[in-house]
Amino acid sequence: MNWRAFLTLVLVAGAAISGWALWSQRSPAAAAPEAGGLPDYVLNEFQLVVLDEQGRESFTLEAPKLARDPGVRTMEIETPVFTIPDGDAKDRTVGAWVVRSQTGWISAAGDELRLRGDVRADSQGASGPVAMRTQELNVFPETNRATSAVEVTVTEPGFILAGHSLEADLAVGNIRLQDPKARYESIPR
To answer: Coiled-coil regions in this chain (predicted)?
Structure first.
């Protein structure tokens, strides 16, 4: 066997091994995008009005940045300001809620908002302003509900309520907390 035939055989074997190694270490096809990848769109300095299935306003969002994950179709938001309208419930005792936080997340269907970091929710109640303060708040705008598993403080004129495991009906202002601590204060006149 001559040296040229031997060298050709070695080169072909090396090419076959290299091809097999590259083929076996390739990344899977991008047919189904994964969560946490690059966003398919980004909004900067925007206002967004989200409608429910009946075409009524579910909530309004203002923020400096929103990014949508194409794999799971959820949205991440920086320093969001949500306005949840008061709707048309007859037994409503509070007005629209304005909710602010450091970060936000919106489900793919737009029916759940997760707010994290210095969450401040404010509304105008029948007896004056109502304020909720916490580090985590989950809001369900279609049902006017809010939940939180962490410490929550609710203040109204002359009244402070603190506890954890919040269950709130935002339409009528019903708030349930576990291990509540209430404090009454005199209202300056």
So the answer is: none
